[in-house]
Amino acid sequence: EGERLNTLIKRQHALRELETYDVPLRGEDAAQPVTATAPLGYHFTGWKNDRDFQIFADAVLTADQIKSVAWQNGRWYTTTFTAMFAANEFTIHFVPGDGGLGAGNMADMLATYGVNFVVPGAGDETTFYRPGYIFAGWQTDEADHESDPTTPRVLKAGDNVADFFGNHGDTITLTALWEPKPITITWIAAPARHRVARELGAL
User: Fold this and answer.
1) Distance separating alpha carbons of residues 60 and 137, to the nearest angstrom
2) What is the mean pLDDT of residues 167-190?
3) What is the per-residue pLDDT for 21?
4) 66 phi/psi in degrees, rounded to 5
5) Which residues make Cβ contacts (< 8 Å) with residue 40, sequence separation at least 6?
6) Fewest Cβ atoms nearer than 10 Å: which of 59, 80, 134, 197?
7) DSSP class per residue in 16-42
8) Is the pLDDT of residue 156 over 60?
9) Closest CA to 162 of 121, 107, 108, 119
10) Would you call the peptide bond into 191 cis, given omega within 30 degrees of 0 as the criterion?
11) Residue 86, Cα to own-chain centre: how many angstroms?
12) Mean per-residue pLDDT for 96-106?
């Protein structure tokens, strides 16, 4: 009947184990392919094993690959195969939006899933600005919620964002949002010295 192999199939990121599968094997042709599925925010980087330390790059660990490592000299040897994942990384690109002017420079930034990205501000001539308007935040081109992909996501300056949605290597565009800048008009009644001020929206 042959030796029994408990082949451990693991998913892990860094030192944190995400999931383990215990696969008993009997007989030379008992191995079955296993597919690594990345958790949200991560991408697959390879299969490793604790026997010959080969790295298999494809997400599908084939039966032949399992056998090439764990089947030696007519018997199975206990071997641990670990699917490795890394956090997705994104390029954050900024655009001034409708009516915005780009006199300043908003350089691209990098963001990593699971790591707080501090959302920058705008609204002056060193970044983006729009005469007569104030900066009101950024609208991203990724979904706010996976369950509602039609909802645009809006971020405010100073927000900490660790959960950008997208695939590893994607560029996420943040478009500046603008609101009319309130102005104050003061009427001076003559000859009296009383002033009446009323705050109005932008003309």
Assistant:
1) 42
2) 86
3) 53
4) -60, -45
5) 146
6) 197
7) EEEEEEEEEE-STT----EE--PPTTE
8) yes
9) 119
10) yes
11) 11
12) 72
Distance CA 54, CA 114 (A): 28
Token pair, residue 65, equals 């690959």
Quote the tokens at residue 156.
Answer: 């405010």
- Say which amino acid occupies 162: A
Tokens of 180: 């009319």
User: Where do runs of H (alpha helix) occur along 16-158?
Assistant: 63-70
Range from 3-7, 17-21, 176-180 carrying the lowest mean pLDDT: 3-7
For tokens 């309130």, what's the residue? 182
Confidence of residue 94 (pLDDT cuts 50, 70, 90): very high
Q: How far apart are CA 99 and CA 101, in angstroms?
A: 7
pLDDT for res 200: 47
Residue keyed to tokens 């399992």: 66
pTM to 2 decimal places: 0.74
Are the beta carbons of 100 and 121 closer than 8 angstroms? no
N-to-C CA span, the chain: 87
- The residue to which tokens 């330390």 are assigned: 53
Q: Please tell me the total number of residues recorded for the chain in this structure.
A: 203
